[in-house]
Amino acid sequence: DHGVSSSLFQNPAKLHLTLGTLVLLNEQEIQKACDLLQRCKEDFVDQITGGQPLTVEVAGVEYMNDDPAMTDVLYAKVHMKDGSDRLQMVADQLVERFVASGLMLKEWDKVKLHATVMNTLFRKDPTEERNNTMTGKSSFKERESFNGQNILKLFENFHFGEVQLDSVRLSQRFSSDASGYYATSGQL
After folding, report:
1. What is the pTM of this model?
2. Could you tell me which residues come within 8 angstroms of residue 181 by beta carbon, excluding any fewer than 6 positions away?
3. By CB distance 3.0 to 4.6 Å, which of 13, 26, 44, 63 could disulfide with 180?
């Protein structure tokens, strides 16, 4: 389909649920975020989860924008296997605490639980390196959307499987650890 290429897919080793984005500019801010994460564990995470991993089901796909023929982000839908809202409660309360601390900006009323599968920001442009070396400049390129209509039809109810969520991590964008996942600044 138009605009679809293998470079759009998330690296399987980096599949995750994003709760929010932090801009941590120094070691003090990283430490503040790590400390806050641990306080959240003590204050409400253990109570909501019973100190146990949460079993989630990943099934179906959806897109972020208005027109499926012009998709930028395609994601797998995530929900608790037991039908409860415990994951949503944990996610929303974590974001609430981080916003209140000043480490995060409030973007939405509640966290959209999803696992990004395809994203046009991942697209590799084969002409990019050549252009950058020729001009000596980095070239900001407009996102090239893809037609997700057939993917949405084919995988609308696709069952990806179940997974045990057992940690919340402060992951560093544009990084990797030995396992292939993002380098982690802190976790609970």
Report:
1. 0.87
2. 13, 14, 16, 171
3. 13
Domain membership of residue 160 as a residue range = 6-124+143-187
Is the distance from CB of 88 to CB of 113 less than 8 angstroms? yes
Model confidence pLDDT, tens digit, residues 9-61: 999 999 999 999 999 999 999 999 999 999 999 999 999 999 999 999 999 99
Q: How far apart are CA 103 and CA 91, in angstroms?
A: 15
Give ∠ CA 19-80-120 in degrees, rounded to 5: 45
How many other β-carbons are positioned within 10 Å of the β-carbon of residue 53?
12
Q: What is the largest CA-CA distance in the chain?
A: 57
**CATH for 78:** 3.90.1140.10
d(CA 53, CA 126): 42
φ, ψ (nearest 5 deg) of residue 121:
-65, -20
